[in-house]
Write a structure and sequence with these properties.
Elements: H1 2-46, E1 50-54, E2 56-57, H2 81-86, E3 116-123, E4 126-133, H3 145-156, H4 160-174, H5 178-193, H6 196-209, E5 214-218, E6 223-227, E7 237-241, E8 244-249, E9 260-264, E10 289-298, E11 301-310, H7 311-318, H8 325-329, H9 335-349, H10 354-368, E12 370-371, H11 374-377, H12 386-391, E13 394-395, H13 397-412, E14 416-420, E15 425-429, E16 439-442, E17 445-450, E18 472-475
Helix pairs in contact: 1-3, 3-6, 5-6, 9-13, 10-13
Length: 477
């Protein structure tokens, strides 16, 4: 009897499993049909609903040109003994060198996917092997809404899911932010089609399928990729559709005035995510490391700081579209930079009071780098990440403010805010004790002006021309 009951249970379980598999197959079939109908509806919309839109361009965030010449205090002012005594000793956590890890490949040996080709190319100095469906073939003989719709139809018939899975795997492996991932997809598209217009169409399709709110537009000779953003871009052309800004994206990050283009007002269902160029994690660009020595004096003692950084990151940052300042201030900087600059500066601030430690870091930034405006150095406005400030021969106010805040936050663990004037950017530090000089309250906390561009100035000193000037706060929390 017991065996009979077990047999019945076994037969029942098989029947249930078979029923479940049939149900699952049915659900997958219905979902595939649903996705196919979405693609067909979107393709039909692409064939008809296009309008002409005129581009606009976001200007530089500064109302006036930045100062060409900056003031310099002939000799550093001695800090009052009372302030040093009242200022608590900074707590500097031990900064140890971290072994630079090499990016782990998801699969050591590339497993060939049936009916797929392999694209082999370099992404900066990293070798990529990404496989794509053999049906990914298209010849763009003309540029119009019909051919664009035809490209969408072609891609819809490919196995794009396996392709996207590889892109996401490589992006995760290298900690790529959205700008780097966009570049990876575009470079893959160029490798497949050998044509920039089709690479833009390919990138558009992939990003839409990754649920990003992106569009394409066209003029007589060019196809443009456009996307919504979580933050502002500057010196980049954009179009306004349904009260949303769509910025034009190109791999070099710089887009001049493109005039009028045709694009569509409709949206692909569920493609609502906006791109963000914030670097939430350290990107694993550890190849092509370069070293550079920086010198500065503090209390008449000469210090040499040997720095190290990745040239791959420098080349990546060259393409970076100018974004909101928070993107630069909040960036997770690289291990090679931390291994060198933080390790070397940590012993110099250890055991010092907050005011002395901040002034030492001010002197390092003020005097280790030569000043020149972006217009003079690059012929356009460029905000630099810390590695770039070290790499290039010159830097200006925002670059110094960004690297100074990086040092204060990582070495002294003190809160910093940006202080933006009409033509200048400085910083202010929240000290634990009262510091004399220029200070203000922001959200209940007192901050003291600490200007990394004003040569030989201590915390509390403002450049003469900004002593009574209005400013805006850039919160870095």
């Amino acid at each position: 009897m017991f065996r009979f009951i077990l047999a019945l249970l076994f037969i029942s379980s098989i029947a249930i499993a078979n029923d479940y598999q049939e149900w699952l197959k049915s659900q997958n079939t219905q979902y595939t049909k649903y996705k196919k109908s979405l693609d067909e509806e979107f393709s039909n919309m692409l064939k008809k609903d296009w309008e002409a839109f005129k581009s606009m361009k976001t200007p530089s965030p500064y109302k006036k040109p930045k100062p060409v010449i900056i003031p310099k205090i002939k000799a550093p002012v001695k800090i009052p003994a009372k302030e040093i005594k009242k200022s608590p000793i900074v707590i500097v956590e031990p900064v140890k060198k971290v072994i630079i890890p090499k990016p782990k490949k998801v699969v050591k040996k590339v497993k060939i996917i049936k009916n797929f080709y392999t694209a082999n190319f370099d992404f900066y100095s990293i070798s990529m092997n990404i496989q794509y469906d053999k049906k990914t073939l298209y010849t763009l003989e003309e540029i119009n809404k019909e051919t664009i719709s035809g490209f969408w139809d072609m891609m819809s018939k490919t196995n794009h899911k396996k392709l996207i899975k590889q892109i996401e795997s490589e992006s995760k492996n290298l900690n790529l932010n959205d700008w780097a991932r966009y570049q990876l997809i575009h470079k893959l598209g160029l490798n497949i089609f050998k044509d920039n217009n089709q690479a833009n169409l390919f990138t558009w399709y992939i990003l839409v399928k990754m649920k990003f709110d992106t569009k394409v537009g066209y003029s007589s000779n060019n196809i443009y990729l456009m996307s919504t953003m979580q933050h502002n871009l500057y010196q980049v052309s954009f179009f306004t559709l349904k009260k949303k800004k769509y910025y034009i994206l190109t791999p070099n990050g710089k887009v001049g005035n493109v005039g009028s283009i045709y694009t569509y007002a409709g949206d692909y269902p569920k493609a609502k995510k906006r791109l963000s160029f914030t670097l939430f994690k350290e990107m694993k660009f550890y190849n092509n490391l370069k070293t550079k020595s920086l010198e500065f004096k503090y209390n008449n003692k000469l210090h040499t700081i040997n720095t190290q950084y990745s040239l791959d990151l420098i080349n990546f940052y060259k393409t970076f579209p100018q974004s909101d300042y928070n993107i630069y201030f909040s960036t997770k900087n690289s291990t090679p930079l931390s291994n060198s600059i933080l390790v070397k500066l940590a012993p110099l601030v250890k055991g010092k009071s907050e005011i002395e430690a901040v002034n030492l870091l001010l002197r390092f930034v003020q005097t280790s780098f030569k000043y020149k405006t972006d217009q003079k150095q690059f012929s356009y406005e460029k905000v630099m990440f810390p590695e770039e400030t070290i790499n290039y021969p010159y830097s200006d106010c925002e670059d110094r403010s960004i690297i100074f805040s990086y040092l204060v936050k990582n070495l002294l663990n003190l809160d910093v805010v940006g202080v933006r004037y009409n033509d200048h950017l400085a910083t202010a530090v929240a000290f634990s004790s009262k510091i004399s000089g220029a200070n203000f309250k922001y959200k209940g906390t007192r901050y003291t002006i600490s200007d990394p561009t004003y040569i030989n100035a201590n915390a509390g000193m403002s450049m003469p021309q900004y002593k009574n000037s209005k400013f805006k706060i850039i919160s870095l929390r």
